Amino acid sequence: MESKKCFCDTGLLFADCCGLYLEKNQNVPTALTLMRSRYSAYATHNAEYLLETTYVSERQYYSKAEILKWATNNKWQKLEILSFTENTVEFKAYFLDSNEKSQIHYECSTFKFENDSWFYFDGKFE
Fold first, then answer.
1. How far apart are CA 88 and CA 56, in angstroms?
2. Per residue in 59-106, pLDDT tens?
3. Does residue 7 fall inside a structural domain?
């Protein structure tokens, strides 16, 4: 894993990019960085990180088992950032579903900053 390129398509090595947050537990500096690290968490099947980085009031709507199922049933191909502001990120996540069929997940995510940490709040989908 150490010498692999990061899943979030920055071109950096995983260890120098999302690995800092997924494995070394550093705080993410921006909403965009959190979005990228959450994509990498899906790619590495890290449901714990996905739940921990979801805003506290929203966690009740997610289950670790469901997150893990979604993460493992798909083969994550590519992340494309379309636009972002301080607290929103619009993106497309490309993946192959369990039938090896190409899919695109489009979302405009909203993030909240609280207690020196960024959290995923919600998303609008098309």
1. 18
2. 999 999 999 999 999 999 999 999 999 999 999 999 999 999 999 999
3. no
